[in-house]
Amino acid sequence: MFPLRQLRVGRSHLTSRRLIPLRYNSNSSNNNKQSKPEDEEESKEVSKKNDADSIDQFKIKPSTSRAAPAPLENTGIEQLMRKDTKPYIPKLKHQRLTHEYPDLPNADEYTNMVKTPKTITRWTRYVPKMLTALVVAWCGYTYYVWMTDVEEGEESTELLDPDEFHKFIVTHKEQIDDEHYLIELVPKFDHWQYSFMGNGESKSVWNGSDRFWSVEIKQPDTNVVRSYTPLPLYFMKSEYTKNNLRKPLLKIINPEAEEFDKGGTMCIYVKRYDNGEVSRYITDRKIGDVLELRGPRTEFKLPYHPLRTLHSRPIFRDLPSKTEPDNMLETVKRVNNLPDVDNLVFYAAGTGIAPVLQLLLSQKPYLGHVAIHYSAKTPTELGEGLQRFLFFLDKLDRVTLTCHYDTEPRSVLGAKDVLKPALPNYVSPLSLENKAKFLNEDEIKELQEKMDLENTAVLDIPDKLIQSAADRGDYFETALEQAIKTAKMPKKPASLAIVCGPEGYIDYVAGPKDLIRDEQGKVAGLLGDKKWDNSNVYKL
Ligand SMILES: Cc1cc2nc3c(=O)[nH]c(=O)nc-3n(C[C@H](O)[C@H](O)[C@H](O)COP(=O)(O)OP(=O)(O)OC[C@H]3O[C@@H](n4cnc5c(N)ncnc54)[C@H](O)[C@@H]3O)c2cc1C
């Protein structure tokens, strides 16, 4: 429905538009040939315009409704949309002109204030940041203290504590045979390492060559604890063996690598008893499981010898070729007029071999010679790694290894393997007091004389200098070269015997321990037969 007026306008418009072409057409048809040239230009233009109009009216515009409003003309949108190619050049402040507003009151004052540059010092820049960081750290610490439980031993400054169980993680487990395992343990927490930084050597658990020590491991379900002997060993991952198998290689902890005893890593050599409470628990642990350790517990301290405070033997390092020769021992002995460190004999069965390995592989290896009698069911029970170390120690003339296997009846330990004891080379006053109970008068006198001599020598140490070539011992390029020479020299019999193994084995070698009173018990067995006694035998 259209309003009538609009309709009319539309109609008149239509009519007028229709009339124009009609008029033009009639004009063009009626025009004579003379008048044509004069009006040619104009008539052409008119003709064009009228042609377009006449075509226009027949055009069908399907998209535009007749009812749609007429398009707006000259809205300026095209002008706005046109791309402005003129570059924008900002005017400097003094070139800008403004006519819109008058100046604000006190404009000069305001401008001066704004213009005055802020003095930015290091403090104004960093203090807010530092304060924010402090607040965040404090909030974090508060959250940590309130929201997290501190585990036992987590904040300890010691790797091991005799009164508190510390958590260790099983990082490697090597099954040697059906019963024997070598297990690598690494402390779960590392807080203790900070206290080791300044004083690593004295804090090291491997720096003693004068004692056997153990740790206690807990079975948490039953709260039963048993002792085990840690060894300064770790597994170096992924070494190719001679069979071209990729197998972790057993290595000795090197004190010179500044890793604080390899981050507290240690190994235990464990025998599994089928109905054993703790050994079963330990050997059932998988990699990543936790064991709780308490210690260290000194099992036995070797008799004092002044040479130990003056000299350290080079550490045994994985291979004989890597081990340094001990060129200074003879010199120190001669210069200070000190006797040799006593030789030891060690009777061990099964895992009882662990204490002597601890003594020999530690960072200050024992200075005397050690005769080892190792008894086992089969030769494979010790495992390739530990066997290799004992073999090399033998080659370096630090030990003499004699193996006794049940599978080889001829090799079984007997009276032929036990020598008579020798008198110790050096006896401290305290040891003499203890020994006096077991020695006769002549022996006590002999020891007393030795002791006086050595005490005088020890007092003179600071003033002594190496005066002549006679004071110096032989010089060797390698430890193997030294071993070839010393191996030919006869060894003085041991003055101390240590026995370690299962109950039956201890009974056989040295007589039973007095378990009721937790005492050593009288020395009997093979050692008792050869006149060894409680002054020179210790049952571990
Ligand atoms: C100072 C010290 C250091 C030690 N170091 C090590 C070590 O490095 N590695 C290691 O494996 N062990 C070591 N032991 C032995 C260890 O402490 C345990 O005695 C052993 O693991 C058995 O404990 P269990 O709880 O498994 O057996 P238990 O529950 O005590 O015994 C269960 C059964 O197992 C058998 N059994 C247990 N112990 C022996 C044994 N010694 N001989 C024969 N049969 C036994 C018996 O039949 C017994 O009835 C050490 C002991 C001492 C005192």
From TrEMBL:
<keyword id="KW-0560">Oxidoreductase</keyword>
<feature type="domain" description="FAD-binding FR-type">
    <location>
        <begin position="163"/>
        <end position="303"/>
    </location>
</feature>
<dbReference type="GO" id="GO:0005741">
    <property type="term" value="C:mitochondrial outer membrane"/>
</dbReference>
<dbReference type="InterPro" id="IPR008333">
    <property type="entry name" value="Cbr1-like_FAD-bd_dom"/>
</dbReference>
<keyword id="KW-1000">Mitochondrion outer membrane</keyword>
<feature type="binding site">
    <location>
        <position position="279"/>
    </location>
    <ligand>
        <name>FAD</name>
    </ligand>
</feature>
<keyword id="KW-0274">FAD</keyword>
<feature type="compositionally biased region" description="Basic and acidic residues">
    <location>
        <begin position="44"/>
        <end position="59"/>
    </location>
</feature>
<keyword id="KW-0472">Membrane</keyword>
<dbReference type="InterPro" id="IPR017938">
    <property type="entry name" value="Riboflavin_synthase-like_b-brl"/>
</dbReference>
<feature type="compositionally biased region" description="Low complexity">
    <location>
        <begin position="25"/>
        <end position="34"/>
    </location>
</feature>
<comment type="similarity">
    <text>Belongs to the flavoprotein pyridine nucleotide cytochrome reductase family.</text>
</comment>
<keyword id="KW-0496">Mitochondrion</keyword>
<dbReference type="Pfam" id="PF00970">
    <property type="entry name" value="FAD_binding_6"/>
</dbReference>
<keyword id="KW-0285">Flavoprotein</keyword>
<dbReference type="InterPro" id="IPR001834">
    <property type="entry name" value="CBR-like"/>
</dbReference>
<protein>
    <submittedName>
        <fullName>Cytochrome c mitochondrial import factor CYC2</fullName>
    </submittedName>
</protein>
<feature type="binding site">
    <location>
        <position position="278"/>
    </location>
    <ligand>
        <name>FAD</name>
    </ligand>
</feature>
<dbReference type="InterPro" id="IPR039261">
    <property type="entry name" value="FNR_nucleotide-bd"/>
</dbReference>
<feature type="region of interest" description="Disordered">
    <location>
        <begin position="21"/>
        <end position="78"/>
    </location>
</feature>
<dbReference type="GO" id="GO:0016491">
    <property type="term" value="F:oxidoreductase activity"/>
</dbReference>
<feature type="binding site">
    <location>
        <position position="271"/>
    </location>
    <ligand>
        <name>FAD</name>
    </ligand>
</feature>
<dbReference type="InterPro" id="IPR017927">
    <property type="entry name" value="FAD-bd_FR_type"/>
</dbReference>
